[in-house]
Structure formats: C-alpha cells, structure tokens
Amino acid sequence: MFLFTGRRLLEALPILFGVSLVVFGLVHIVPGNPVDLLVPPEAPAEVVAHLKAIYGFDKPLYVQYAAWLMRTLTGDFGISVFNTQPVAGQLFEALRNTFQLAVPAALLGFSVGIALGLLAAFHHGRWLDKLFSGLAITGVSLPHYWFAIVMVLVFSVFLNWLPAQGMAEEGTSLLGRLSYLVLPVITLSLIPMGVVARLVRATVLEILGQEFVGALTAKGLTRRPTLLHVCKNAAPPVLALMGLQFGYLLGGSILVETVFNWPGSGNLLNLAIFRRDIPVLQATILVLAFFFVLLNLAVDIAQAAIDPRVRR
Amino acid sequence: MASTSTLDGGTVRVGAAVAPAQPGIGYWRAVGRRLARDPITIAVTIVIVGIVLMAIFAPWIAPQDPLAGSVLRRLKPIGTPGHWLGTDETGRDLWTRLVYGSRLTLIAGVAPVAISLVIGSCLGIVAGYAGGVLGNVIMRLMDVFYAFPSILLAIAICGLMGNGLLNSVLALSIVFIPPMCRIAESVTTQTRTLDYVDAARASGTTTSQIIRHHVLANVLGTILVYATSLISLSIILSAGLSFLGLGVTPPNPEWGLMLNSLRQAIYVQPLVAALPGVMIFITSMCFNLMSDGFRSAMDVRLAQ
Lengths: 312, 304
Hints:
The structure holds two protein chains of two kinds. Chain A is about 75% helix and about 0% strand. Chain A is mainly alpha-helical. The model of chain A has no long low-confidence stretch (mean pLDDT about 80). By secondary structure, chain B is mostly helical. Helices cover about 70% and strands about 0% of the residues of chain B. The longest helix of chain B has about 35 residues, at about 95-130. Mean pLDDT of chain B is about 80; it is low at about 1-20. Chains A and B meet through helix 1, helix 6, helix 7, helix 10 and helix 11 of A and helix 5, helix 6, helix 9 and helix 11 of B.
C-alpha cells in the first residue's frame, strides 16, 4: 500500500509538469504577443515595449516558461493585467466561493445518486427501476445552464422564495446566506446525481450477476450482509467517478456560476477570458487542473485501500 | 429470445471479445430484433431523424428569414398570429430561428465527436499496436489532457482562440480525443494478444491486414457505442460555449446563443425565452436514450 502510494505520487509529477506546459502553451496558441492584444493599436511603440518588458513577454518562450514556473511554484501568480491586483488573492477568494457551491452540490448529488442507483438496481426491471433510471438520464441530459434559468424563473420570479443571483453580503444571517446557495447547489448537483446513479445501477447489476453472490446466498447468508458484499465490490469504480465529478464541479461550474452571478473561479475565468487577463487565466486554469490531478490521485489511493486488486 | 443466434452461446460482449473479424449476420439480426422490440429506442430515433430532417430542410419548414427582425414585433408571446412560437428580443420569428438553429447546434455538437472519433481511434490503435516508446508517449500525452476538467479545457481553448463555430468544434475535439484514444488503446491491446490474432500473424497475415480486419472491427464497435453516448454531452457543451459567448457568433441562429440572448427577456416572456433550452434538452435526451438502447441491444449478455 505504501509502495503503491509512493509510485502513484511519482507518476503524478510528469503529468503536473505536462499540465503546466499546456497551461503556459495555451496562451501562445494565439498568434502574436499577448501584450499586442491588450493595448490599442495606436499605442506608442516604446510603451508597448515597456509593457512587454514588465510582463516578460519580450524574452524567448522557454525563458518565459521557466520564469513563470519558478514564480508559480513559490505561490506568486503574478499581477492581474486588468486591475493590477495580485492574482493569488483574487483566485483564492474565488476558489473559496466555488468550494462553497461544489462541496454541498457534490454531497447532495452523490448521496441522491447512490440511493437512486442502488434502489433501481435492486428493483431491476420494475417500475421503480424505470422511474429512477428515467430521473438519472434526465439529470445527465439537462443543459444545466438552461435548468438554472428555469429554476430562477420558478423560484425567484414566480414564487419569489429565493434570491435569483449573487452571494449574500457580509453580515447576513446564516439562513440568509443559505438561501443564496439553494438554487445553484441544486442545479450543480443534477449532473453528478445522474451520472453516479447510472454507474451505481450498472455496476451493482453486473455484480449481482456474478457467481460469488449466488454462492453467498447458497451458503445461507441473509440478504443484508450479501448486499454489503455487493456494495463493497461496487465501490471502486463509483469512487473513481465521484472523484472525476467533483473535479468537474470545481472546474466546470463556470456556466452555472455565470447564470447565478456567483463570484467563483468559473466566473473569474469567464471575466479573465473577456478581459484578456492572461495571468488570471493561466493561474485559474493551472490551479483547477492541479486540484483535478490531486483529486484523481486521492481517488486512486482510496481505491487501492478498498480493493487490494488495484494495488498491482 | 433471439440471443441463441448470436456468436457463441451468447456469453460474448461487444468489444475485444467478439472473435470473428466480421460478425456473422446472426449477431446483427439479433441486435435488430432486440431494437425492434424496444419502443423507446425506436421513438427517440424517430425524433432524432426528425430533428436532422428539420436541419436539412429548414428553408421549407420555416419559410421566414431567420435574421430579419423588426422593432415593432419584439418579444411577442407564444400564439401570436404569424409567429406561433412568438418572437425574440429583436423581433425575429422564434420558430424560424429554432428550425434554423438545429443546423448549427447539430454541426457544433456532432462534428467534435466525429473528428475525435477518427483521430482518437487512430492514435489509440497506433499506441496499442505499436506499444513501446511510441505507445507510451501517446498515452502519457493523453494523460496530460485528461488532467483538465473537460469543460474547463474547452472554455480555455475557445476563449483564447476567439469565438466562432470552427474554434468551438476544434476545442471540443481536443477535449474528446483522450477518452476515445484510451478506449481504442485498451481494446487494441486486448485484441492484439488474442489467440486467433496470433494465429493470423503466424500464418503470414501482414500488420496492416491484421489492423484492418481484426483490430478495427473490434475497436469500431466499442468506440461507436461510446461516441453515440458522447453526442449528448457534446451538444450540451457546444451550446454551453455559445451560451457563454464563446461559440457561434451572433446573429446566427444557434440554440445556446439564442438562450443567452433571450436570457434578458425571461421576465417579459419566460416561456419564449425557455424554448431554445427545451430544444437542447430534447435533443440531448434523445441521443442519450438512443445510445442506451443501442448499447443494451448490442450487449449480448443483457439479452439473456
């Protein structure tokens, strides 16, 4: 187990290096210098040259990459081109807000998804299975940004129960804060709910068909402990999927954050794209991808802890 | 059940285990029979065919101009004479725009899946068959792209290259290549070591023949099923890119973009504003259900 953990940690390093290369390279897939995109075309040449020197865009690419990587590794993400504030502060503020949405959404989506999937599998072929499978496929097929609009329409415009946009201001009561969370969290939880329910159902059905389940029943084990065996065997693939889905919630909430005007990392990324704010953009993508790699690493290790067969 | 006519006793699964290079007519006939007994799959397939026909014959189905608006008839409700689904924020007929919108939405959703299917399976077959350094380089490269949450990567690429249909297709293709490649690689590696492939090699079959007859037959079955399940996601994501203002450019009709521009009008005409999203939902739901139907029809083990 210890060896496995060490090996997986080592394997993650080249991937992280590759990720940093891609994030750095992304900015340079656009022809031309990033500064030229920012300044108006009539700007004097010396001002442009000065700006390039400040941001280091005048040096060769590999020098820029090395400098950027060294700075980033020490936690210095540079300065926003848009508002000249340090990127790190804005980014961590935004990440905190995104976590506020992603963690409850993941908890909600995963628990409902697992429950739906298990119930559907154990009632295979009956109406409960059909109903829950239908719910799951709806969750997967819904364009969540549209569902967000519909939620706002129903609960904020027609019923006027919940706030439509934004985040509670400082000093709002706990209930007031929570009311801002309800709609985005429900919207975000739909996709993980559907995906997890579908996988749980498929995996449990497959395991129920395996011979060892029949053997357990044949030797006289009652229903409850048998189900425990089934669940334990179904856990590793479901765990892997939940890791991926949580990563998507962190990185992919951009559409939902845009609709709800939630000041999270997705919103920051969206603004950075439209403002051509390269340092913010690079830092946001890098940190989110970094989280994603670490998350997958944690899932791999957890899988190995549950299922010794994974530790090969 | 019809499963007795399948390959060898009905215990094989679509994928590397399907032994003969050309599945006998019995297998496909069995799949067809199972599909014919599945009313949901038939219904959603008809809906999808309908949407595709709507995209092809848009000018005949909706004779109005999708780009011509009028300040006088902005945001008319559903059921207005001459505009039975109402009008949008610049007075353009919504029915016309929804019909024409199916063109760009389908292209932007299906093209990335098709492109990544070709490139991903080529890379995967090469990586799986060649193995060694080349295979390793390809697969580690895929790992790096796998390390990004998919929507994030698509948005970043699209945002930096600028908006437009082409860039959105390109960005989503890059996102879908790694999973396709992984599947193709694992099926290829499984196939390569099967006894009958060894036998074929021993009896003098060339590499290109083995790949064309044995590897491709196995890879394509698995990857096509996977690709159909990706179309729904691809449509949601590409419409999402347009929704963010990163995909198709205005004033072209595209469902995601229409949803975005009508978002300001949800307080005035909520039902009209929600319609483009309904279209995205129906289309992606149908693709998902169709993919599920085909998968279970092709999975011989479920037919028992």
